[in-house]
């Protein structure tokens, strides 16, 4: 939503944040357009998680024959004394290995002469690319925490025994100086996954949580609390840091179905705002995969409850709001050749609509492509209500639909047809929705990403590219609906600044 490389021939993928001295440092896998593998660790800096300045890459793939001349892997950044450490990895001959770089200023980095500092340990883990079912031995994506006077790292790895589709695990490493590492036994996690990528371990409200990302594209069906959220970031919890970890009732934090049109690789970090979560919004790919690319999402707060974790709205964009464009709710008529169903009335800043059969849309005054919208929706009777946005003159564009029969919220593509409105679903999530209960909705649309909140809880974060129109509408589907407290603020968020030199990309 907020950051992509300034150059169009560079693509954004997995990322990690590090906060220091009033600045957020964003490190990320950078790919060349048209290529699947990472060749650099990009670096951007922000004072507020919204305005970003891109600087020289922190890590560049090694020359031919070096241990890190293969695809680069996700890492982490931390401080020890007066030095900063970047621990990431590369795949050498299809075996992931870890290396370390150091810096005194977070800008200029030097690779450690003793790299690689860790390779897969065959005592517990797969270590041979020739016998690994996936073709690449996993030993990557370190999450590093202080451990007394030393450090512990949690890695994506696979066990060296058991059914091939159930070997996904979290390996452990231990170090006193962040340069020399010793492998330890795996963390006990459910034997449900081929891979637990990019683990993130942290304590919140008296529990330990372990986030990890996975997808059915590894070849195994995944069962979660929500069948519409299986490719994304999953949640495990434990009473102690070292486990055993189990699934909470809400065992997936955010994601999508197989298509990866939503948030991917959610991680967390401590900041002046508390522990915040951040992720990659993934652009859609073909079913068999392609050239993954993404955009840095809008960071969120975290909340824990008896069912697991939720992501919460943070008011990061408020300083970039323009004047409100719909002070009172007003209706407007767009040109149309069609007689559309439904009856709508607008009075005292509220709208009531009803349609017995089909879907009805009421165009409303105001235009904006990037915006924050808040409203209260009530489905008095019937099935569903929603909001249309980025609509063209004919009422075609995007929408969000709350369905009390299916108990779902969906981001959709809307189209006005001869007898009303139809839609194609982009992403959906299960949400209990009681009829006749006011729904406090927040909608954020910025660049290619749409986010839907209910009472400030994030429900969906979806890439929906290619829509440049600016119209709005209210939607009723086989229902009587009421909409009030509608407010819209256009957003004016500056694009990232690029301070890198051309030569730094070579």
Number of helices: 0
Average pLDDT confidence is 92
Strand content: over 45%
Unreliable sequence segments? 502-506
Straight-line distance between termini: 27 Å
Given helix and strand content, the structural type is mainly beta
Radius of gyration: 24 Å
Give the overall shape.
globular
Q: How many beta-strand segments?
A: 33
Main sheet summary: 11 strands, antiparallel
Helix proportion range: under 10%
Task: Describe this protein's structure.
This protein is an all-beta fold. Mean pLDDT is 92; it is low at 502-506. A hairpin with a 2-residue loop joins strand 30 (449-454) and strand 31 (457-463). It contains no helices and 33 strands. It starts with 9 loop residues before the first strand and ends in an 8-residue tail after the last strand. The strands form 6 sheets. Strands 22, 23, 24, 25, 26, 27, 28, 29, 30, 31 and 32 form an 11-stranded antiparallel sheet that branches. It has a 5-stranded mixed sheet with strand order 1-2-3-4-33, with no helix packed on it.
SSE layout:
Elements: E1 10-20, E2 23-32, E3 38-46, E4 53-60, E5 72-80, E6 83-92, E7 95-103, E8 110-111, E9 139-147, E10 150-158, E11 168-175, E12 182-187, E13 197-204, E14 207-214, E15 231-238, E16 252-256, E17 263-271, E18 274-282, E19 294-296, E20 300-305, E21 308-312, E22 343-347, E23 350-354, E24 359-364, E25 371-391, E26 397-403, E27 408-417, E28 420-430, E29 439-446, E30 449-454, E31 457-463, E32 471-490, E33 497-498
Parallel strand pairs: 4-33
Antiparallel strand pairs: 1-2, 2-3, 3-4, 5-6, 6-7, 7-8, 9-10, 10-11, 11-12, 13-14, 14-15, 15-16, 17-18, 18-19, 18-20, 20-21, 22-23, 23-32, 24-32, 25-26, 25-29, 25-32, 26-27, 27-28, 29-30, 30-31
């Amino acid at each position: 939503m907020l950051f992509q490389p300034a150059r169009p021939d560079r693509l954004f993928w997995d990322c990690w944040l590090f906060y220091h001295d009033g600045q957020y440092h964003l490190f990320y896998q950078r790919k060349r357009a048209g290529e699947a593998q990472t060749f650099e660790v990009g670096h951007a800096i922000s004072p507020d998680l919204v305005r970003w300045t891109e600087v020289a890459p922190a890590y560049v793939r090694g020359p031919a024959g070096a241990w890190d001349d293969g695809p680069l892997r996700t890492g982490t950044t931390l401080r020890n004394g007066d030095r900063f450490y970047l621990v990431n990895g590369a795949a050498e001959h299809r075996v992931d290995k870890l290396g370390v770089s150091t810096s005194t200023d977070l800008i200029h980095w030097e690779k450690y002469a003793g790299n690689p500092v860790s390779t897969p340990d065959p005592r517990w883990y797969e270590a041979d690319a020739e016998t690994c079912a996936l073709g690449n031995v996993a030993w990557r994506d370190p999450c590093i925490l202080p451990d007394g006077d030393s450090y512990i790292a949690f890695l994506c790895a696979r066990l060296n025994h058991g059914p091939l589709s159930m070997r996904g695990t979290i390996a452990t490493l231990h170090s006193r100086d962040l340069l020399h590492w010793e492998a330890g036994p795996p963390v006990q996690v459910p034997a449900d996954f081929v891979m637990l990528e990019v683990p993130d371990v942290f304590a919140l409200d008296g529990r330990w949580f372990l986030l990890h990302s996975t997808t059915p594209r590894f070849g195994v069906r995944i069962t979660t609390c929500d069948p519409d959220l299986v490719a994304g970031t999953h949640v495990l919890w434990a009473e102690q840091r070292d486990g055993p970890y189990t699934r909470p009732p809400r065992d997936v934090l955010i994601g999508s179905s197989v298509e990866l049109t939503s948030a991917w690789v959610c991680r967390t970090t401590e900041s002046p705002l508390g522990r915040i979560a951040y992720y990659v919004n993934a652009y859609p790919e073909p079913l068999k995969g392609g050239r993954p690319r993404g955009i840095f999402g809008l960071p969120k707060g975290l909340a824990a409850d008896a069912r697991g974790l939720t992501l919460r709205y943070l008011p990061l964009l408020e300083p970039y709001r323009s004047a409100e464009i719909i002070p009172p709710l007003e209706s407007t008529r767009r040109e149309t050749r069609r007689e559309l169903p439904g009856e709508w009335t607008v009075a005292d800043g509220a709208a009531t609509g009803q349609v017995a059969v089909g879907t009805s849309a009421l165009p409303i005054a105001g235009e904006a492509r990037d915006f924050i919208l808040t409203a209260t929706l009530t489905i008095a009777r019937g099935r569903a209500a929603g909001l249309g946005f980025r609509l063209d003159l004919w009422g075609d564009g995007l929408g969000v639909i709350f369905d009390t029969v299916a108990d779902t919220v969906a981001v959709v593509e809307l189209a006005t047809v001869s007898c009303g409105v139809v839609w194609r679903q982009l992403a959906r999530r299960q949400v209990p929705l009681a009829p006749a209960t006011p729904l406090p909705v927040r909608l954020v649309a910025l660049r290619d990403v749409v986010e839907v909140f209910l009472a400030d809880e994030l429900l969906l974060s979806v890439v929906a590219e290619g829509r440049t129109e600016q119209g709005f509408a209210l939607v009723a589907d086989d229902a009587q609906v009421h909409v009030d407290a509608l407010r819209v603020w256009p957003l004016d968020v500056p694009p990232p600044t690029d301070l890198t030199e051309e030569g730094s990309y070579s």
